[in-house]
Amino acid sequence: MTRHGQVPAPTDEELNAYIRTRYTLLGVDISVLPESDPDAPMDQERLLANGRSILRQDVIAADFEIDPQFNLPVTHPAPFVAWIEEVGR
What total of structural domains would you count in the chain? Predict the structure, then answer.
């Protein structure tokens, strides 16, 4: 931990180990992909880079503070709106 009580961000190697473990637990063997081949549809280097990017974006998104007074827009009126309109007549 750092001085301010924050956990340091994981290194690329730590994230790579996590990603490889997750794929293994899912039964996916990424070792069949080429290590690094720009002509291949996918290689291990790009797969791991993409996984690290997603994990780091998830951390940023999880740190988002929600405004308790924010009202989400509703795409359709709630069913009770009809009752309110009838009472107001």
Answer: 1
Q: Tokens in use for 29?
A: 């063997």
**Spans of the chain below 50 pLDDT:** none
Domain enclosing residue 9, as ranges: 1-89
Reported for 59-64, long-range contacts at CB under 8 A and 24+ positions apart, including other chains, are none
User: How would you class 55 by CB atoms within 10 Å of its CB: exposed for 0-12, middle for 13-18, buried for 19 or more?
Assistant: middle
Give the pLDDT confidence score for residue 69 in this predicted structure: 80
Q: Would you say 6 and 46 are in contact if contact means Cβ atoms under 8 Å apart? A: no
Token pair, residue 13, equals: 């190697």
Answer whether 47's CB lies under 8 Å from 33's CB.
yes
